[in-house]
Amino acid sequence: MSISQAVEAAGDGSGSEFRRGVTSCAPVLFGTIPYALVLGAQATQKGLSTVELSMMTGLNFAGGSEFAAIQLWTSPPHIVLIVAITFLVNSRHLLMGAALAPFLRDLPRRKVFPALFFLCDESWALGLADARQRAAAGITPAFSPRYYMGAALAMYLTWVGFTTLGAVLGPMLGHVETFGFDMAFPAVFLVLMRGMWTSMAAARPWLVSLVVAALFYLFVPGAWYVAAGAVSGLIAAWLMAGDA
Amino acid sequence: MINAATLLTIVLIAGVTYLTRIGGYVVLRNRTLSARAAAVMEAAPGCVLISVIAPAFVSRNPADLLALAITFVAATRLSMLPTVLIGVASAGLLRHLIG
User: Fold this and answer.
1) pLDDT tens digits along A107-138
2) Start-end of H helices in chain A
3) Per mean pLDDT, which range of A58-62, A159-163, A183-187, B15-19 is the poorest?
């Protein structure tokens, strides 16, 4: 019996595992919709076409980095800056993948590599929590690929669908500043950071980033404030880890 | 419809993002990170996010600063959707009232 057959035999029917994944993701999907609409609308205001926006959210599929990219978008885009910021925002995937790796050991790489394309905060959190629960309950294999893919694909389709809808509706909304829609960016980012919060000590590098980025924004022309703030925060994290 | 520089940027960010997704699985699955490297990786996303929105914290418009303070408090207590709604509504209203 191959590994994939073993995986399928262990679930109580593959369809129900997929559905279980979609269902557990549903509450998160409702929270994602307004956020997706705002990103789509903002992108059109920055000059992206609907097709370009759909390509971005469909190929990249990482909301935080897309918000950052759109926020920094100019015409033509500052490619090096946007790619570097994308890497920094998404560097958390490295830790997430490493945490998931022990549960993926028995899966063939030809299945793992496509599945990891759909790794996002939500599919990761759900997949990992489910695998830990199943491991505690003695179910093998602990990781249910179809459960993970149910959650991940629901998230993917919602994200790409509603960012595209936001781009279609965007031009009808007029200038976002008039209505305060631009405040959605800080709101989204602050909630994301609240989710990453562990302790006051662990958040000190964020404060360093904020102060340095604000100073650069005020006194240095261009979009260098993001890189300066991010790098100084990372240096602070490196130095502070020594006395922790 | 599709601009060459835009397409290049999208393809590059998509490639970089996919590398972060498989990187942890490929490189880190049989290793343990040093405490310092782990601390830096953990702090990185927050450092970037706060840097991107830093200009809002030094806005010259009092309405924007007040709206940001309200949004900040909301973000510490509420989930994504109510926080976004409160942020957008307070910025819209305060700009209208204070200008």
Assistant:
1) 999 999 999 999 998 888 889 888 988 988 99
2) 3-10, 14-45, 50-59, 63-71, 79-90, 92-104, 109-117, 121-136, 145-173, 176-179, 184-196, 200-219, 224-243
3) A183-187
Number of Cβ within 10 Å of residue A92's Cβ equals 22
Which of B27, B50, B98 to probe the A interface (max A CBs under 10 A)? B50
Return the residue of B nearest to A231 by Cα.
Answer: B47
Question: Does some domain include residue B84?
Answer: yes
B21–A117 C-beta distance less than 8 A: yes
pTM of this prediction? 0.74
Which of A42, A191, A200, A235 would you mutate first to test chain B, the one with the most B CBs within 10 A? A191
Report the domain count for chain B: 1
Judge whether B40 and A113 are in contact, CB under 8 Å. Answer: no
CB contact under 8 A, A94 and B54: no
Q: Do residues A181 and B88 make contact, with C-beta atoms less than 8 angstroms apart?
A: yes
Residue A205 near residue A240, CB atoms below 8 Å: yes
Question: What φ, ψ does residue A221 adopt, rounded to 5°?
Answer: -70, 155
Whether residue B17 lies inside any domain: the answer is: no
Q: Nearest CA of chain A to the CA of B69: how many Å?
A: 10
- In a domain, residue B74? The reply is yes
Inspect the interface and report whether the beta carbons of B46 and A206 lie closer than 8 Å: yes
* B2 touches A49 (CB < 8 A): yes
**Domain hosting residue B75, numbered range:** 47-99
Q: Say yes or no for a CB contact (<8 Å) between A184 and B29.
A: no
Residue of A nearest to B15 (CA): A60
B62-78: pLDDT as tens digits: 999 999 999 999 999 99
B30 in a domain, yes or no? no
Query: A52: which chain B residues are within 8 Å (Cβ-Cβ)?
Result: 1-3, 6-7, 10
Measured distance between the N- and C-terminal CA atoms of chain A, rounded to whole angstroms: 49
How far does CA A81 lie from the centroid of its chain? 19
